[in-house]
Amino acid sequence: MKQEGYNQEAIQSMNRTLILQYLQQEKMCSRVRLAQLSGLKQATITNIINDFISWGIVEEMGLMGGQRGRRAIAIRLEQERFAVIGVRLARQFFDVGLFTLSGELVGERVRTPITDNAPQAVLDGIARSVLAMIHAASGRQILAVGVAVPGPYYAKEGIIEDVFPGWEKICVPEELRSQIPLPVCMEHDANAGVLAERLLGDHDRKYETIVYLAIGQGIGAGIYHNGQIFRGSTGIAGEIGHISINLDGPVCSCGNRGCLTAYASTIALTNRINLARQKIDPAAKLLTWQDLTGDSENAPENDPVIREEFDRNIRYLAAGINSLIYSYNPDLIIIGDEILALDKKIADDLADRLIYLKRHSDKKKVLVRASSFDMDPAFVGAAEVAIDYVFHHLGVFWQ
Q1: What's the rounded Cα separation, in Å, for the pair 390 and 393?
Q2: Average pLDDT over the chain, rounded to whole?
Q3: Which of 6, 66, 84, 313 is most open to solvent, judged by the fewest CB atoms within 10 Å of its CB?
Q4: What average pLDDT does range 356-378 have in this prediction?
């Protein structure tokens, strides 16, 4: 790949983006602290913050911790004037919400069930919801729209494959951009999730390689390494759901056999639970995922059949995660999406099941834990995709 240097204007832009990112992560911060975090000179920090204040992007909030002096004044991102919209497209619904530049949801998220999965019907519905939210956000300047989509998502072409029939023929971002008069940024839902976890999640920022594993109706991994998402050559890196764990298994829509999704997705788990229940009682009611997660009687700890199939799912997932560990050598793996609604202790169960690096057992092992978000990380991540765009394209503040 061709390597190029940076001119003064590019360096200034990168420094501004860096400071905005630190302000988002820290929530409230002094100039001295920003200098410490960024490694920039205090004079540079002062100039950047003065520009931000004059543009209305940040605001001063008074002295921090009772200290005195100009540099101890608390600074935060402006909370009322600017916002972005996050859209989470799933297989059965899409969510739309308004977010501050700090990544906080303003009001309620709006969920719309998908009754017609034809591309135009779904995308028209998303556009209508976004336009309605723009209209309702009186007093706020909406800067961008971030969209998290299921995969495989070929980012360079803007194509979603193997999710809805006919979608592989449409450039999804271009279709939305033709209806929404704002920058529209699109990302695979697992990538959006890992972006949210890295920048806004409740964990130590020391980790260099983070994997967010979304386990729902599909299975995908978002990989964050050295400050950026790893997408691969076409954008589909992290499609762990299409790793084969059984070469003689069922044929997947991708053409492979025995894909992890066919064994460990919430759809596969629900189907196995129903089969197991009907072997015991042919008249047993068929349970939906909503039944499994909405009734405590169906919790794994309260039903031995469900517990057995959930444990089987853990074994399948552990096989896939082992491949992740050897492929990407992450510091941290975060478990999220629908599976947490059935058992929030799944991350602990997976950590116990994983068998890896035995020859180096005295060395640091990867940490496995559940998502720190109450909301779907991919939904928060959709907003973060838009915020990230804004921080790298400050011109949107004047459009």
Answers
A1: 5
A2: 87
A3: 66
A4: 71
